Amino acid sequence: MDSAAKDEMQPTLSPGPEWLEQERAERLARGAALKWASGIFYQPEQLARLGQYRSREVQRTCSLEARLKSVMQSYLEGVQTGVWQLARALEAVQETREALSQARRLLQGVSQASQPLQPLREQAAQHKQLQALSQLLPRLRAVPAAVAHTEILIDAQQFLEAYVSLRELEQLREDTWALLGVLELPVFQGLDLLAEALGEAVEAAAGTAGKLAREDPALLVAAVRVAEVETGRTTPLGQAPRDWRQRCLRALQEGLERAHFGSPLLPAPGALAEWLEALRVALPVELATAEALVAPCCPPHYNVVQLWAYTLHSGLHRSLQHLLTGPELGAADAFALLHWALHVYLGQEMMGSLELGPEADVSQLEPLLTVENIEQLEATFVANVQANVAQWLQNALDEEVAEWGRKQEPNTDSSGSYYSPLPAIVMQILEENIRVASLVSESLQRRVQGMALSELGIFLRSFSDALIRFSRDHLRGEAVAPHYVPYLLAALNHQSALSSSVSVLQLDGAASGALAPVEAALDDLQRRICRLVLEALLAELQPLFAALPSRRWLSSPELLESVCKQTERFCRDFWRVRNPTVQVLLAEAERAVVLQYLRALMQGRLVCRGADERTQAAERLEHDAAQLQQLFLGLGLEESAHCAPVLLALRKLLNLHDPALLGLEVACLRQQFPDVSEDHVSALLDLRGGLSQEQRLAALSFLKAGPPPSPCADRRALFSLVPAPAPASASCLRSGFCA
User: Fold this and answer.
1) What InterPro entries does this protein's entry cite (predicted)?
2) Alpha-carbon distance 422 to 285, whole Å?
3) What is the distance, to the nearest Å, from the Cα of residue 591 to the centroid of all Cα atoms in its chain?
């Protein structure tokens, strides 16, 4: 039986957990051996060589065991050597610890023994300091004289020499500190004050840089060099650095602001325009001086021109803000400031000049006036201008009203029309203020235009109220005007002139309805003046119409001829009213006369007693219509619109022979004059006479049952302005004695 078979027959022992790796290795080795053996002894002829293989494997096994024994022996010898070395190291550490303990005890003994030597050590240090002081004593004795000399140099503005002397003194103090520690000698107590005095002198020189650049540039250069050297110097530990460069820059800015924007230089109320004009001249000169004279005296990193521009701009901005927070500016000052800040300051006359370099550009800085400032100034300007305009317009109106009581007629122009400078004065005041506002900004122009239209509306109302007072006082006899009507006609010309020129107040691009309130006020003024004129006309005609209609009126034209003569006499000055207003006035006069005529007809003074009288009344109406039409056409009316239609329509009503057709005539009258009422028709039927109650009711029924009148935009109220007599109360009694 071979070894592989024997191995398979041996019982397998289950190893413990600590031998898992070993068991795995054995299994792998055994498997490899079985694989090798099966490969070798697969063929029967190989079994003859089994003894050779067994002896070879025995030799290999003995060799491996010998090598394992050698490795284990070498490993055990190394471990033994390491243990011995660790023992020797432990003994050395213990010996070192004992030596250190002994050294510590020796050092403690030396420290206690050296304490009596401390006073000697201090005396040695003092001796060393005294020895150093004895070497510096000649220099220390010269310190007071050096300080005095430095003060003289500072007073003489010899900054470079003074700074060299100051640095020598400070170096001596630093050397003394190095020898004596922090001990400060009394001789150096005034050195900090001396340095501060030099710094103030340098700062003062920088504050007048513009003046020094023109008069003594060397002094400015010396001051700047001292500031630069001191700023670049490394200060000793514990000493605060003196940043004289920043002090110089601040002094430059403060000097500029003090020169142009100091408190004594700020303008008084009303003098802002002169102050701004002075700045317009001074600021470009200051920038040119900075670029040509100051900049060469300073290092490039100072950016002198840019610093100058920024400082002037900032100082001006603060000054303007200070002005705006003070008392409210007047209109002239507000306008001057707005125009100067928005147009002059950045224009070619000042900061935008082509002669200035790009470093002087201030367009990217904050604006001089904020949006709130501009809003405040515009509101102030408009409020002040509005008060002034209101006063000017009131004064002009007062002067015009004073003219109305004169014994002379109104002045006339070359065409003979009544003339007064009042409209021209009013429009010039308003137009000039709008034009001035346009020089500042479009927003201010719109504000002033709105103010101008508002004030014009107020003026027109005041003008209308003045005319009413003028008419009331004249009619009451409190202040009789010798030329009452001519001055009313002159007022119509004023209204016409204002209407024709109000369009100049319309801004380009403004809303089309901006002038609507003013145009409506002008139309109201025109109607009011026309009404006052017509009231005066009717006051003269009313006695003449009191006798119309009558029997005398039927038989003779004298009554209407008197009316026409009186009307012609009253209207003889209407030609002095300009077109187209005169046409409006004549048309209103014609309408007023016709209304008075209709009012007289409606009074029930006459009842035609037969066909002959009805024919006479119809002919008289036709004649009167032609006469009145001819009157007003002769006065200059281009088209008569009231006389003929209404009187001829009444003529047809009176001249109708068949009472059955009265209803048709009444319906035609309603179509022509929609405002005719039943009372008006009833009064006309009373004038016609000869109608029974049934015929009257039948005619009136056509007024109600007829078709509605056709709409017409040109129709104006006529009959509705004529009061009709109240209808008589209906009676239940028939005609007879009792009735």
Assistant:
1) EXOC3/Sec6, EXOC3/Sec6_C
2) 48
3) 54
- With the CA atoms of 629, 630, 634 and 637 taken in that order, what torsion angle do they form, in degrees rounded to the nearest 10? 20
pLDDT, one tens digit per residue, over 158-208 is 888 888 888 888 777 777 776 666 566 777 777 888 888 888 888 888 888
Asked, for residue 645, whether it belongs to a domain, the answer is yes
- Number of compact structural domains in the chain: 3
Identify the CA nearest to 313 among candidates 272, 269, 366: 366
Torsion-angle region of residue 270: left (phi > 0), alpha (psi -120 to 50) or beta? left
Residue 10 falls within a domain, yes or no? no
Q: Which one, of 606, 624, 484, lies nearest residue 551 by Cα?
A: 606
Say yes or no to pLDDT of 689 above 90.
no
Please give the Cα distance from 705 to 670 (Å, whole number). 11
**Residue 632 placed within a domain:** yes
Is the CA virtual torsion 422, 425, 428, 430 positive or negative? negative
How many CA atoms does the CB half-sphere of 228 hold within 13 Å?
Answer: 13
In this structure, are 348 and 425 located in the same domain? Answer: no
Do residues 505 and 456 lie in contact, with contact meaning Cβ atoms separated by under 8 Å? yes
Buried/exposed code over 201-227 (b: 16+ C-beta within 10 A; e: otherwise)? bbbebbbbbbebbeeeeebbbbbbbbb
Domain boundary among 369, 384, 405: 369
Shared-domain flag, residues 505 and 643 = no
418 DSSP β-pair partners: 412
Check whether residue 399 and residue 474 sit in a common domain: yes
- Domain range for residue 678? 578-707
